[in-house]
Amino acid sequence: ARLGDAMSSLYVAGACIKRFESHGCRANEADLAACAIDSSLHEAAEALAGMVRNLRSRPRAWAAGLCVAPLGWRMPPPSDRRMRLAAMGMVENGSLLHSLTQRADLP
């Protein structure tokens, strides 16, 4: 289950990169895209770390951890500053929020 979580988080990060590049790498979307990508990569790293921690054999867990993250688990979540910039970008720029939610159904 955790490997699936990691793979889905990596897929979301890839989709964020694809959308950002497909829309012309707009400056007003940069903070939001970076925040979403950082968050997805952090979730993927957490899922992989959890998978390694749950291996029954400690020597295999150590070896798997060394193979999966040879430099350690260093993917921090998005910083508060980046989260604030992303939120302010959506609040101050109504067109950005509209472009993200244009296909969402409103009740």
Structure in words:
75% of the residues lie in helices and 0% in strands. The longest helix is centred in the middle third of the chain and has 27 residues, at 27-53. The protein is elongated. The mean pLDDT is 84. It has helices at 2-22, 27-53, 58-68, 80-92, 94-101. It is mainly α and 107 residues long. The protein has 5 helices and no strands.
Distance between the termini: 34 Å
Any idea what the radius of gyration is?
Answer: 17 Å
| Main sheet attributes: strand count, strand direction, barrel closure | none
Secondary structure class reads mainly alpha
* Unreliable stretches: none
Q: Choose one word for the global shape.
A: elongated
Number of helices: 5
Overall residue-averaged pLDDT value: 84
Listing every helix as H and every strand as E from the N terminus to the C terminus, the arrangement reads HHHHH
| Share of β-strand residues | under 5%
* Helicity level: over 70%
DSSP strand count? 0
Topology readout:
Elements: H1 2-22, H2 27-53, H3 58-68, H4 80-92, H5 94-101
Helix pairs in contact: 1-2, 2-3, 2-4, 4-5
Structure described in brief:
The protein is mainly α.
What are the key terms here?
107 residues; 75% helix; elongated
